[in-house]
Amino acid sequence: MESKDEAGEERNVLRTLKCPKSGKLILHIKYSKTDGTFSRFLTEFEEQELIGSGGYGSVSLCKNKLDGREYAVKKIAKIPVVFQRGAIEGEAADIEAEVDDELYEFGQIIREVHILAQLDHPNVVRYYSAWPECHLEGYEEKDEDYGKSQEGAEEKCGESKEGPCLYIQMSYCPKALESELDRLRSNPVLAIQVITQIIEGVAYIHGKEIVHLDLARDNILLDKDDTVRIGDFGIAKYIGERSPKIGGGKVLYLAPEVIAEEDKEEKGEFIASTKADMFSLGIIFYEVLVEMKTDMERCETLKKLRGGNMETVVDRMETGDNMKQLLKRLLDKNPESRPEASYVKDAFVPPIITELIGGI
Which positions does UniProt annotate for ATP binding (predicted)? Predict the structure, then answer.
């Protein structure tokens, strides 16, 4: 099937690939004769549902048409024109050198791709691929066997009518920690297993000289077997990197030293350190272990953990002394007093597990 532009020239072409034995449709390939592009997303994936969306774009659950497996595909819309064609090249630092704000923001997105590509661990979301796509302007699908599903895909996560976009293909995890807290609190053994896996994942990330900076209960994912997968490296930095302090967002999880003061015009800077992630883990572990019945109670309790009443709040927990000691170390306002993830894994986890087994 071909469509023509106003000048009557061939513009967009649809090609189909069928099984030689059964005749069953395997793939549809879209491309433009005028610029040689085609949509890899629409060719290879069938979108199942929208998982989440935000200012960056959206994440969808997608089924690969060839291998039949489910993946999470993140789409970042409105990428700069310089990335409309070809492979993603260059380090984020090269992009950040540009004065243009749009290029700087996209540099942060490219950084996420580069960081994901370095990570290969059972407790980190797996990265498969990333690719930019161009806008196929004026495309109209009229294939009777395929038009409806293809049209729907375009409206959800397919080619953007607003310009080029970037796709990131990752492993799919059906659950986030925030939706599983009640189940974990009722099962102490599973709760400690999850905490241990989080520590192992963070220790691995830090071993790659990467600081996550956005560890929170909605970025800690679980697969169908309850294996932890740490995701969303959108604001991750390399250890020692200077960055503007962070304003807004998940302030309840952020270490005090990385938060911008609201009453000051200049945000100031911080140097990325693994100790910032360790503070976030203290908040997360408390949430895993302690029930807070309302959002207001949760907000007030976590504020106390961040403030001068931290030790009092921790001492009231119905848990062993080793876990209390760990939380006090993690939530210390002095970054230098917080232990590294590798130390927590070796020095704290074994006695905590022993303590738990003894209490069952």
Answer: 75
Secondary structure E strands in the chain:
2-4, 10-18, 25-32, 45-54, 57-64, 70-77, 127-133, 165-171, 175-176, 210-211, 220-222, 228-230, 237-238, 242-244, 269-271
pLDDT of residue 102: 52
Q: What are the φ and ψ backbone dihedral angles of 141, each rounded to 5 degrees?
A: -90, 130
Mean pLDDT of the 101-114 span:
70
pLDDT at residue 280, rounded to an integer: 97
Catalytic member of 67, 145, 214, 232: 214
Contacts of 141 (CB under 8 A, 6+ apart): 14, 147, 150, 151, 154
- CATH code: domain 14-83+100-138+160-172 is 3.30.200.20
- Is 304 labelled as part of a ligand binding site? no
Q: Is 68 left (phi over 0), alpha (psi -120 to 50) or beta?
A: left
**Residue 214 annotated as catalytic:** yes
Domain 174-359: CATH class, spelled out? mainly alpha
Q: Residue 128: which residues within 8 A CB-CB, separation 6 or more? A: 71, 169, 170, 171
pTM, full prediction: 0.77
Q: Which two tokens stand for residue 21?
A: 């034995």
pLDDT band at 54 (very low <50, low <70, confident <90, very high): confident
pLDDT digits (tens, 9 = 90+) for 264-288: 666 789 999 999 999 999 999 999 9
SS3 285: helix
Q: How far is CA 145 from the centre of its chain?
A: 35
Q: Which of 26-30, 50-54, 207-211, 342-346 has the lowest mean pLDDT?
A: 26-30
From-to residues of CATH 3.30.200.20 in the chain: 14-83+100-138+160-172
203/199 Cα distance (integer angstroms): 6
Crossing angle between the packed helical segments 349-359 and 188-207, to the nearest 10 degrees: 180
In the chain, which residues fall in CATH 1.10.510.10? 174-359
